[in-house]
What does this fold into?
Amino acid sequence: MSLIQHLINGELVNDSGRSADVYNPSTGHVIHQVPLASRETIQQAIDAAKAAFPAWRNTPAAKRAQVMFRFKQLLEQNEARISQLISEEHGKTLEDAAGELKRGIENVEYACSAPEILKGEYSRNVGPNIDAWSDFQPLGVVAGITPFNFPAMVPLWMYPLAIVCGNCFILKPSERDPSSTLLIAQLLQEAGLPKGVLSVVHGDKGAVDALIEAPEVKALSFVGSTPIAEYIYSEATKRGKRVQALGGAKNHAVLMPDADLDNAVSALMGAAYGSCGERCMAISVAVCVGDQVADALIAKLVPQVKALKIGAGTSCGLDMGPLVTGQARDKVSGYIEDGVSAGAKLVVDGRGLSVAGHEEGFFLGGSLFDRVTPEMRIYKEEIFGPVLCVVRVNSLEAAMQLINDHEYGNGTCIFTRDGEAARLFCDEIEVGMVGVNVPLPVPVAYHSFGGWKRSLFGDLHAYGPDGVRFYTRRKAITQRWPQRASHEASQFAFPSL
It folds into this structure.
């Protein structure tokens, strides 16, 4: 059994303290151990970042971008290796892992445009012989805390942009599936990133608290559950840190009577059951406008949910792999039992699935509920598993009210052929990311990702233009060079043009 290490100041280092097991979810067996960083180890990473920052911030943006160009090439060359590691430790299928990596690479491509996105603004002669301009300057040492469900993509949302803006970055990935994250960081070093600019430290709450409390860390990015997002936001902001903390979700898909139902069903299958539902953008609620739509949807979904191809994630041609841990599987099973007890109609029950040759794996089949109502726990809470709930309403207005009343506002979508209905939905829905006939409206890298309400704590979304603003500070400079022959008298009133 191998020991996964920290990456600090360009070197792989151990931590002699506590450690955690890393499982292969398809077999249920421990395959690695990962150290849980002590405060001393976290401080080593911070000290390395502080030491590297002065030279890195003064490195021209074009040279920083060249590192990212080489990094992108290395990621593409190592796609199969990275995807294999993701699948072995997370459980998602190889195809899904490769798709995750590709979306992460898009953010590296955006970071390659550093000379453009970091250009300031210049105004000549804002007053007599006075010029003014603004500059975007790095914060210093910043950190990111990332979840298990996207061990490649979510870190790539953060540190390529933070680093290309001139910061030094400390990453604390999930301790459940750290190998791909560590490999990717090593590839960035291979691309020419100086030592100390990026460190990877593994850990649990102790490591998170150390990053929150360290005065040298100027900003924190987080993706995970809402309770932890709220905790990090509260604790870090009261220490004066800049924070973007992305939390939980309960994403609804609205199906109108005029929807292309076959296309909607295909989209829902992937959005609800892809990656075993372990996505913050997963569609977990289908809101059907009218019983006729609901009945037709259920009729089409049932055979497809029952026919899902489920097995070890590293096998080819599958729809789903296992959940990430046995605890995650049991938690989702508990939600299913709770839904039955609350009176929802369990149309397809995914519990009790056994995969031949992988009987100890953390598998759960797809489940489908009908007649779900808003007061039920399976409707209100984020299940984070392969469970789709069907809710019936009588109008688009009722569907929108249902979504707007929910505490989360991460993602949503509508299936319709009616442009007026789609426009109304986009305008009035209180959700940060909206799709029209698009089930997973994840913005491309040159836009920004983030929800509303209790799905996001902080003022700026992740990656894209908001990411640039998050990882930089604007400095406004006003300059005058008086003419030698002139002399102005002192002014005691507030200056104006």
Summary: The first strand starts at residue 2 and ends at 3. The first helix runs from residue 39 to 57. The two ends are 71 Å apart (CA to CA). Residues 64 and 164 are 6 Å apart (CA to CA).
